[in-house]
Structures are given as C-alpha cells and as structure tokens.
Amino acid sequence: MSTAAIHGGWRARDPHGAVVPPIYATSAYAHPSHESLKALFARRCEGFAYSRSGNPTTAVLEERIALLEGGIGVIAVASGQAATTIALCALLEPGSHVVASNRLYGGTTEFLDDTLADLAVTSTTVDPWDLDGWEAAIRPETRAVLLESIANPGAELVDLPAIAEIAHRYDVPVVVDSTLASPALYRPGDHGADVIVHSATKYLGGHGTTIAGLIVDTGRFDPHRRPERWQRLTTPNRRFGVTFADDYERGCSGLLSYARAKYVTDFGATLPAASAQQILVGIETLDLRMDRISATAKELASRLHERPGVARVNHPAIPGRRDAAIAARDFPRGTSGVFSVDLAGGEDAAAAFCDALELFTIAVNIGDARSLVCHPATTTHSHLTPEQRAACGVTDGTVRISIGLEDLTDLQADLDRALAAVAALEPPRVVPTADRALADVQGKRQAPAGTEHSERSLHIV
Ligand SMILES: Cc1ncc(COP(=O)(O)O)c(C=O)c1O
Description:
Blueprint: H1 2-7, H2 34-41, H3 56-69, E1 73-77, H4 80-91, E2 97-101, H5 106-118, E3 122-126, H6 131-137, E4 142-148, H7 160-169, E5 174-177, H8 182-185, E6 195-199, E7 213-217, H9 231-234, H10 254-267, H11 273-283, H12 286-304, E8 310-314, H13 324-330, E9 338-343, H14 346-356, E10 361-362, E11 372-374, H15 386-391, E12 398-402, H16 408-423, H17 434-442, H18 455-460
Parallel strand pairs: 2-3, 2-4, 4-5, 5-6, 10-11
Antiparallel strand pairs: 1-7, 6-7, 8-9, 9-12, 11-12
Pyridoxal-5'-phosphate binds next to helix 4.
C-alpha cells in the first residue's frame, strides 16, 4: 500500500526526469499527423486529444488509485459528487430504480431524491442492517445498490459481503462510496463491490486544499451476464461507433470507457491537472495518516462517551454498537477519523460546543490534516426531511467531528473546553404543558431551552 501510494502510476516518464508527476497544464495535445488524431477519435489507439476527457497528470492519479483499490479502471473527475453522479448515470436510464442505504452523505440523498427523480429514476432507501429490506426493495428495474462503507456522519459500518451477495443474486451492481475509509483502511472490491466512488477531497488528498472525485471499476461487473439489460454497453453505440463492453476482453473497464466518453465529456466534470497533482501528493502519506487519525478518533470518541451533556457518541468502538463485529472483521486498522456526538441540549448545545472550540475549525469538510466540526442538521444534512435526518442518525444536537493529525492531548483539551461551555448553558427550562412534554418524549425531541417547566411536565421528562 505505502509503496504503491508513492510510485503507482509514475515511472518517471517525464522527458526532463521530473521526480514528482508534473502538472501538465495544457488544454490540447499536438499530434504528428491528421491520421494520428483521427485514429484517437475513432478509438483505434490510446492517447490524449483534449484535457476535458483526459490529461497525463490525471492519468497517473487514475493508475495509482487502480493499484490501491485493486480495480481494472479508474476515472478521476471534478468532485466526489461528480463521481457519484457519473457512476450512477452510467448504470441508470429513465425508468431505472436505485436501492440505497438510508445512511448517506446528505448531498447524495439530495441527488437521489431531486435530480435523479427529475430524470425519471426512482429510489428506495433501506436500513443497511436490514438484509431482508435490501432484498425486498430490489425490483426488476433496479440497476444499482448504493451505500457508504463507513457512513457519514455516524461512522456506521455495513456487512458489504452480505449485501453484495443479495444484489448479485439479482445481477444488480453494488456501488460503494468509500470516501471515509480510503483504500488504506478498506478495499470495497475485496468485499463484493462492483463500483467504488470516492470524494478524494477528503482523506486521499488529506490536506483540505482540493476538490476531486474518483470512480473505480473493481472488475466484478460483467454486462455480458445480462446483455439485454445493459444494451448501452453490449451493443454498438450509435454515437461512438464502438461496443463498450468489448473493452472487458482487453482487461479494461467498458463501463468506465462509456462513462468517460459520454458523461465526463458531456457534463464537463473534468478534474484539473493541478488538482490531480495535489491529490497525488496527498496520497503519498495516506497510509501513515489513516493509522494515526483512526487511533486518535477512537480514543477521543471513547473518552467522550458518557461525559455529562453527551447523549450518545456514534463511533464503532462505543459499547453496544451493532457494527462492532464488522469493525473487528473488516477494519483491522481502524475506522477513520469521522464520528459524531449527539449533545443532549440540542442545537443550542451544539452551537455552544462548536463556538467554544479553539483548535477544531468549524467547517463542512472531513479528512483534513486539521480537526474539523460541523452541525449536520443545519449544514450537510439541512435539505433533508426530518425523517431522512433521523434515519441517518442526525439529531438537532449532533456535531460531526473529523479528527486530524494534531496531538491527542491538545484535541482532548479543546473538547473539554467545548463540553464545559455546554455545561455552562442555562439548563433547559422548557416543556410548557404535560401534553407537550409527552409529545417531545414520544417524538424523541429535545425541549428547547428558555421556556418554563411546569411541575407536571418536569415529572414526565
Ligand atoms: C461520503 C461523501 N461522499 C461524497 C461527498 C461529495 O464529495 P465532494 O465534496 O468532493 O463533491 C462527500 C462530501 O462531503 C462525502 O462526505
């Protein structure tokens, strides 16, 4: 892993001997003849024509990720969101259906619910732990199963081999967003995934400088098994004049050739060469970073558990987690640096917690060298319905924490400062009537701070 992370895809091909893959800052590529460019467009040879669909720096990144994830092909794209969009577009058509975990990054849920719905694609969400639920949700028109290997923000793990076995029984490819894990901690292809997507913006880059995305074909998906279902791959493409599935016979990904020719080109979701180089440099230290970050996060999550004001810590190491066995079986090196805490005092407590932090930065990113926090209910997951937020474990008091590379003791001191600020808040004085209190309890809502308790309602609470 650590060797491939430094040398993968770069064999000092630069004519000047550049040691680090240089940024090929060019929009187009000179060809020796008319025939040469014509052959490239006719897909009779490989090479570069125009950087919207490929660039030598980006190609190094693609090759390196293919090695790290054990895939047969990779496309680098403009963002993690573009990776999810393009991967799904390559599998779906109007009338298709997606079965998705209900624990997803908010932007992915919005894409399914809104943009894909506009394109006449429907989706069903399921609790990733409900294996019968996955199977029951699959329909004849289901063309993708979608989940996160470590879910954002509650760090929930899934039994991917069991879910993949169900999906493959119906010849439905499994798409895994493995952003939080990175290939250093978990390779979804080894556990049954067909396609992997990454927001390389996070751990792969690791320095919070660059937005980038990746799509990996693990080599499991074979459109020839159901040629009638995947006609866009298994029959000659009118626009491009080729049958994309033929690429599999050369050991290449027909799915990704199709996705690059059509969607990367049409959507223009190109990763700039300078961004590719930033991610390449980040990947060089991925292996080291993920051990350190995972260990620090585990330790801090365990220490936050059962602290006053903390209703719950969402990390696989917390006693009673249903994914403890998966953590032990599939994540021997740890579960990355993202976890969340649910503060008993709701949004007011979350605000006090975040505002008191001096070392952690309030920002909607994860996987940075710096530790970050955000309040998902009002940011990353704010466009979801209350039911969708509840399903993915986001309460009004949830604070997402992304642990960086700072010293554990300093991070602990900052979290102590934040919890002290929460403790100093006026105790919640709400619950005006017994009925309201009961409704709050039944609905598991926090009573807002600053209103009066009646004796009866206090008793109920
Ligand atoms: C799990 C996950 N997937 C995808 C994305 C989208 O990635 P990007 O911001 O690079 O578009 C994010 C962003 O937070 C994410 O956390």
